[in-house]
Specification:
181 residues; alpha+beta; 8-stranded mixed β-sheet; 35% strand; globular
């Protein structure tokens, strides 16, 4: 297992594995309403069994080389994470996502963790296009996409249903030559 420092005292990026289910569930319980405003993890990890299944689905993606999930630990407490929700190496495309519980916001953790993940998927895996798909209502996530130097490709109006409300989906991306420069 690897641990990658995120440059802040006590902040680390580590793989999230099925055996982290109890810790991940406790993290979701702390941030469920905040996290769930914009992403489905909070609704998918509704109990320990579903949490373990969620983490197992990413272990399966890692084994198939189609996705990854990493946790952000601050002072040895899981407070958020980043993931490659989709990773299609043959097509050279990946989608990065993130989440964070309220107590860990405003520290730059998601931006730094996302940089590590994007750098890895571009430099090590040879992905050409990295996407960031975000609800138009999720201003903090849009701000991260901007800080990462991504370009806004467009908006898919009324694209998905989240907690009974239709949401617009913004598509942001960065291409390998842009990232490397």
């Amino acid at each position: 297992m690897f641990v990658k420092s995120l440059g802040t005292e006590g902040a680390e990026l580590r793989p999230l594995e099925p055996w982290h289910a109890e810790e991940f569930f406790a993290h979701m319980e702390r941030g469920r309403e905040f996290i769930g405003r914009h992403i489905g993890f909070a609704d998918k990890a509704k109990d320990l069994e579903s949490t373990r299944e969620l983490l197992q689905s990413y272990a399966d993606k890692a084994a198939a080389d189609t996705g990854r999930i990493f946790g952000i630990w601050l002072d040895d407490k899981l407070v958020g994470g980043v993931l490659l929700r989709v990773m299609d190496v043959p097509q050279g495309r990946a989608e990065v996502g993130c989440w964070l519980e309220p107590a860990a916001t405003g520290k730059g953790l998601v931006t730094r963790a996302s940089k590590v993940l994007i750098d890895w998927v571009i430099r090590e895996r040879g992905v050409h296009r990295v996407e960031w798909l975000v609800s138009s209502a999720n201003a903090p996530s849009i701000a991260v996409a901007r800080r990462l130097g991504m370009s806004r490709d467009g908006v898919l109006r009324s694209y998905f249903l989240h907690r009974g409300v239709r949401q617009d989906l913004e598509v942001w991306s960065v291409l390998a030559p842009e990232w490397e420069s």
